[in-house]
Design brief:
The protein is mainly beta. It has a single domain (about 5-95), classed as OB fold (Dihydrolipoamide Acetyltransferase, E2P) (Beta Barrel). The chain is about 10% helix and about 40% strand. The chain has two helices and nine strands, in the order αβββαββββββ. The chain has helices at about 5-10, 55, and strands at about 10-20, 30-35, 40-45, 60-65, 70-75, 75-80, 80, 85, 90-95. Strands 3-2-1-4-7 form a five-stranded antiparallel sheet. A two-stranded antiparallel sheet has the order 5-6. Strands 8-9 form a two-stranded antiparallel sheet. Strand 1 and strand 2 (about 30-35) form a beta hairpin. It is globular. Is required not only for elongation of protein synthesis but also for the initiation of all mRNA translation through initiator tRNA(fMet) aminoacylation. This is Methionine--tRNA ligase. GO terms for molecular function: ATP binding; methionine-tRNA ligase activity; tRNA binding.
Length: about 110
């Protein structure tokens, strides 16, 4: 269990995928360029490559944890984390019900 104060520290934002590509040497990782309303795109490395093609993600809105410390995955910096559920068929992206502006906060 975490407190409401801890939860409020997590910055969730809507992002729009601008570009997506497979990470060389991995069948699972995708490199995404995501607009989260900051004026420049963020690079996010996500382990959803078995369930999603890069082409299917471009233009899609996703939910991003925006205030995580950057992490290096396969030599690439990931500047956030996308949110996904997972079932027997693999990851399922969490997406807004209707389009909203990139950078809108999830409350």
């Amino acid at each position: 269990m975490i407190s409401i104060g801890d939860f409020k520290n997590v910055e969730l934002k809507v992002g729009k995928v601008l570009e997506a590509a497979r990470v060389e040497g991995s069948d699972k990782l995708l490199k995404l360029s995501v607009d989260i309303g900051e004026g420049s795109a963020r690079q996010i490395i996500a382990g959803i490559g078995k369930a999603y093609t890069p082409e299917a993600l471009v233009g899609k809105q996703i939910v991003v944890v925006a205030n995580l410390e950057p992490r290096i995955l396969m030599g690439l910096e990931s500047q956030g984390m996308l949110l996904a559920a997972s079932d027997a068929e693999g990851p399922v992206l969490l997406v807004p019900e209707r389009p909203v502006a990139p950078g809108e906060q999830i409350k």
